[in-house]
Amino acid sequence: MEQIAGVCLALLISLATYGQQADLLSGKFTKEQLKSVLIPQAKWTPFPKRDDWAGWAKADQAMMQAYVKKAETYLTYTWPYIPATKSLLIERTGDRDQYQNVSFEKREVLGTLLLAEIYENKGRFVDPIIDGVWSICEESFWGVPAHLPRSRSYAGLMDVSKPFVDLFAAETATYLAWVDYYLGDKLDAVSPQIRKRIYTETSNRIFQPLMTQPHGWMTKTAAGRAPNNWNPWICSNWLNAVLLLEKDDDKRAASVHKLLDVLDEFLNPYPQDGGCDEGPSYWGAAAASLYDNMALLNTASNDAFAYVYADEKVRNMGRFIYRAQISDRYFLNFADADPQPGMAATMIYRYGKAINDPDMMRFGAYYRQPETGTVGKFHFFRHFYALFMQDEFKQAAQGLPLPQNVWLPDLQVFAARDKAGTTDGFYVAAKGGHNDESHNHNDIGNYVVYYNGQPLLIDVGRGTYTRKTFSDKRYEIWYNCSDYHNLPTINGKTQPPGMTYKASQVTYKPGNATTQFGVDIAKAYPADAGVKSWQRTVRLNRGKNVQIEDIISLTNASSLTQHLMTCYPAEVLKPGELLVHYQPKDQPAKDFVVTYNAKQMQVAVEKVKLDTPEDRGIISKWGDTIYRINCTVVAPKTADTFLFTVAAK
To answer: For the whole prediction, is pTM greater than 0.90?
Structure first.
């Protein structure tokens, strides 16, 4: 009876914890209360004004000087226009980069010039800034062609009569809003039309569409998929722009009120464990962008939203970034995530400080880099926070938590390493989930194995984004498909996309000597694959090896092939032993043996041909070194067991 009561109590606590998340942001203040909570636009000083010498004396001088040095290279910059034919490339060839590279560069130049003028305050960067503002305002679309609706009515060119907001239109509004905040008087001294143009264009392209039109990124899809990083990322830039530019405090409060509703559409369904199904490289625009919104709201409201940082889900969302770490260079890269994403060090440190997580603060401080004057392409406003925290940041403790075991039950992802706090030895991770996750690959049951922080059996991840990437041809791209993951092809069938294709019977058993993850991947395959159960166990035997065991039950067994992916050459040493020639950069070469039952399987190694536009991104991450190992079952049975053991030779 006592045991039943304990289970019930735990269930009630769990339900209460989940229930607390509903409308965490929008449920706090009414629209009228928000107006009184927000500092009026005319009185709001998020960072020192340009002429506040005492205030700017607290900014990091090395950073500012680096911005000036970089900006000096742009004094004679010719602001390019973007011809229609570059926009049309998305339809004609699938190329999105030629347009984007020009667009992103213009904004990066503008942001650098602004920071330099703030610091120097002598006016020599003002004319180039005005040229940049005017050039950007004259663009037909502040977003990118890859985000245009795919219909004949667009066909690669923006319909300027129907503005809508994508990621980079919202980013553009932020650049212009900070130009207005810091240089408004200098712009007016030249012509009042400049600031008028900034507000008019931002209102027409951003504020009005966001307040009057539904946007797909604001809420779940028709299939029920929760919003991804677009939601908080766009909101963070919407918030920057409306707080800085909107002088009508009623409209300003109404915009923030709606924005909080939109953010809750992202936060409410987010898993309690904080797991980001888009991976660590998208975390910087997902959970991190949610934090950006909170940080800016607190700056604009005398910390009226500080209560959010005590919420356990929000805290877990921050912690995900170091829980998904493999080594200083590599991170878990299921789906479209990058294996070596950049770390926004100052933002991570600030997030860690806000949620009072010393591990996250040390993690952020670890990635602090010398100043180069580079502002990057996105999240421009983070630089203002970074400028005023450098004294603390430079003195902060540095370190990587590298937890021994990680379990994200909602995301159905586990990771384990030989020893906490070090990359020495084996690291293994695996996933369950479903095949309609954000940036999805068909990868239920996939796993990775690393050694000494370097890849051994890998998830290839994503290549270069093209028109094909987010089209109905997505799963014609090889690296999105299950037969190019560490997964089986069953009776000639691979995993299809869709939420109904999912993991079941997911288990996790941590331990000092052994940690293991179990998942039945039968439901990840179509009915005609004939899979009754395919119970996979991924096991780390600390200090020894990694084992992958599959116990299967099929209705028929015509053909079975197990696939393994690696970034190193491999060969069959002798039947039953596959040799992987592990040779990471700047580390000694070392051979690993993958043992298998030679009576069950014949093994062949193929080098994956990388020759498509999408493959350019694979080469940039891994080099032209992707190998697929095909372990073909000689005499398939309807009931069988397969065992792979990975160990150093």
So the answer is: yes
